[in-house]
Amino acid sequence: VRSRVTAAAGDAIACAKLRRAIDELEDEIALQMCAIGELVYATHCGTPSDSDEIQKILEYLDDLHDEVEAHEREIKLIRGSCLCEVCGAENTAATVCRSCGAPLPSDGDN
């Protein structure tokens, strides 16, 4: 019983850390979206914008979104969900994906 409680506490702490990291990433995403908006508005007002700068910000935003998705997947795995390797759908207690029908890994593979 004690080991299950310890494991559950560890999982809760891990999920809390991941949620905090997600919050920080989302704050950074909001800041970068504001920066993009300011550059686009400046262009609208006649001030030329550096397209390389915009591209760098957009690529950075892509990376931030990828990190958020990775953290969200990790939280789902900690909570016992199985993610389909084919389509990425979340599944619980199944042998095939409810979304695409692909076989899901067994508990030993997860």
Write the layout of secondary structure elements.
Elements: H1 2-44, H2 51-78, E1 82-83, E2 90-91
Antiparallel strand pairs: 1-2
Helix pairs in contact: 1-2
Order of helices and strands: HHEE
Distance between the termini: 23 Å
Q: β content, as a range?
A: under 5%
Adjacency order of strands in the biggest sheet: 1-2
What is the strand tally? 2
How would you classify the helix and strand content by structural class? mainly alpha
Helix content: 55-70%
Mean pLDDT over the full residue set = 89
Number of helices: 2
User: Based on CA inertia axes, which overall geometry fits?
Assistant: elongated
Radius of gyration: 20 Å
| Uncertain stretches | none
Largest sheet: 2 strands, antiparallel
Protein described:
The chain has helices at 2-44, 51-78, and strands at 82-83, 90-91. A hairpin with a 6-residue loop joins β1 (82-83) and β2 (90-91). 65% of the residues lie in helices and 4% in strands. The two termini are 23 Å apart. The protein has 110 residues and is mainly alpha-helical. Strands 1-2 form a two-stranded antiparallel ribbon. The mean pLDDT is 89. The radius of gyration is 20 Å and the shape is elongated. The longest helix is centred in the first third of the chain and has 43 residues, at 2-44. It contains two helices and two strands.
Features of this protein?
110 residues, mainly alpha, 2 helices, 65% helix, elongated
What would a concise description of this structure say?
This protein has helices spanning 2-44, 51-78; strands at residues 82-83, 90-91. By secondary structure, the chain is mainly alpha-helical. It has a two-stranded antiparallel ribbon with strand order 1-2.
